[in-house]
Write a structure and sequence with these properties.
FAD/NAD(P)-binding domain, 2 domains, 8-stranded mixed beta sheet, 17% strand
């Protein structure tokens, strides 16, 4: 069957398991389902190819902040990574390779516009027609929908604007006066790449990020050969990265311990920025880890360039050819690039998934995402979320969390099979106990008490994006399926 078909016969419009999203989560789900003997599933994605965020983010310098051998599926290793930290093109190629065996199950160019629980199944509306499914796996990913701030006067700007996740490769930036809004993970990567060629670059910073050395390097041909011929060596390298990152998490979970890392970050700043005023502007006023810690060896040096200016005064408006800040300065620009992140705590899919009472997931959450094990929600039968509430990480690979969640999903499917099918959801008590546990654990972490407001927090101030512990503790919670945490739902 053509995975890109715009239409399908009625007999193929029902599937037992519908997976929404063909990024890391959706591809991993398909592979694990297939290996467990579940062949009646489809994977929907709005794009023309798989890859999710690694398909969409093609800005200069785009790369992963997790070492390559950890940022991959444990059961689909790649001994041929070319660098210690992989770039976008290489990760995307890896994902396309992983998805090769799933091609007949893919429904690309199928944007999911709505999904509602009707009777005993999910009715899914896509841009290419309607489908039904017994189970719905939402794998849209937290970094899928870009955020562009509503700046006063932006519509009057005569120049070019775009978000880093929708990079304009057709636009030659040489000689242009570029305004970059945001100093998060994307900007830290692309600013050093475009700074040498633009006429001028004004970098608008709301809050200074903590930046640690990246120490990226090429992996030698001898290393790659060794990883290919000696799988145990590759597993050892992965384990070394894993436990090193888990050790680093101690500072995030116990903020008094983060001082050592802060001193290292300050030394990195001092060694890179000689101008005292610029160094002060780049010095964070909150604990390291409260916001995402960034890795870069070339971001600070790029700010030393004579054609680059750091702007810390807030933007108050945009004119035809400039950005105006609170200090009254008009910063001329003919191009605005938004490095302003994504909708993480209010995922777009939540506003189109409707449960048994007709409410959307967004309405049920009412501003703060909550789910049992970050995976399933009372009132939404047979719905499973990948990288749902409190499953993100501030220190290591979310791919590990995806694999843990898939263990839980397969446990749920086994339980449903043994119980004769039907519709299942977490009990209200199990979900409430779990969310209470998460919130209690989060209270003492740097993410909640570090003195900043970050995208980890939702509009209520609750940290609903991150897991408040070591990843091995989440693994312990998902490795065995708790049948008492779920209940069968009556269907009409």
């Amino acid at each position: 069957m053509d995975a890109d078909a715009d239409a399908a016969p009625a007999s193929s419009r029902h599937t037992r398991i519908a997976v929404v999203g063909a990024g890391f989560g959706g591809i991993a789900a398909g592979l694990r389902l297939r290996r467990a003997g579940h062949t009646d599933f489809l994977i929907f994605d709005r794009g023309a190819e798989v890859g999710g965020t690694w398909r969409d983010n093609t800005y200069p310098g785009c790369a992963c902040d997790v070492p390559s051998h950890m940022y991959s599926l444990s059961f689909m290793p790649n001994p041929g990574w070319s660098r210690s930290f992989s770039g976008q093109a290489e990760i995307w190629a890896y994902l396309r390779g992983c998805a090769a065996e799933l091609r007949p199950r893919l429904r690309l160019r199928h944007e999911v516009r709505g999904a509602a629980w009707v009777g005993d199944r999910w009715v899914i509306d896509t841009s290419s027609g309607q489908y039904t499914a017994e189970f719905l796996v939402a794998a849209g990913g937290p970094l899928s929908e870009p955020v562009v701030p509503a700046l006063p006067g932006l519509s009057a700007f005569a120049g070019t604007t775009f978000h880093s996740a929708r990079w304009r490769h057709d636009l030659d930036l040489r000689g242009r006066q570029v305004a970059v809004i945001g100093t998060g993970a994307s900007a830290v990567q692309f600013v050093p790449r475009i700074a040498p060629s633009v006429g001028g670059l004004a970098l608008f910073q709301r809050t200074a990020p903590w930046v640690m050395p990246r120490r990226d390097r090429d992996l030698t041909a001898r290393e790659r050969l060794a990883f290919a011929r000696v799988p145990a060596l590759r597993r050892l390298a992965r384990a070394g990265v894993y436990w090193g990152r888990e050790l680093a998490a101690l500072g995030f979970l116990h903020p008094p311990l983060v001082g050592l890392a802060e001193r290292a970050a300050r030394r990195h700043l001092a060694a890179s920025i000689t101008d005292p005023a610029l160094r002060r502007a780049l010095t964070p006023s909150y604990r390291l880890g409260c916001k995402r810690v960034l890795l870069s060896d070339d971001f600070y040096p790029a700010l030393n360039r004579p054609n680059v200016t750091l702007v810390t005064s807030p933007i108050t408006g945009v004119t035809r050819d400039a950005l105006v800040t609170a200090d009254g300065v008009a910063h001329a620009a003919d191009t605005i690039i938004f490095g302003t992140g994504f909708q993480v705590t209010d995922p777009p899919l939540a506003s189109v998934i409707r449960g048994v009472d007709g409410r959307t997931l967004a309405q049920a959450w009412d501003g703060s995402m909550r789910a049992y094990l970050g995976s399933s929600v009372t009132g939404f039968p047979n719905l499973f979320l990948l990288l749902g509430p409190n499953t993100g990480l501030g220190h290591t690979s979310v791919v590990f969390m995806i694999e843990c969640q898939l263990d839980h999903l397969l446990g749920l499917l086994r339980h449903v099979g043994r119980s004769g099918g039907g519709a299942w959801e977490p009990t209200p008590a199990a979900q409430a106990r779990y969310v209470d546990f998460v919130d209690r654990r989060m209270a003492g972490t740097v993410w909640q008490s570090g003195g900043c407001h970050s995208w980890y927090q939702d509009r209520t101030g609750r940290v609903s994006a991150l897991w408040p512990g070591h990843t091995w503790s989440y693994w312990l919670r998902t490795r065995r399926f708790d049948v008492d945490a779920y209940r069968r739902v009556a269907v009409s």
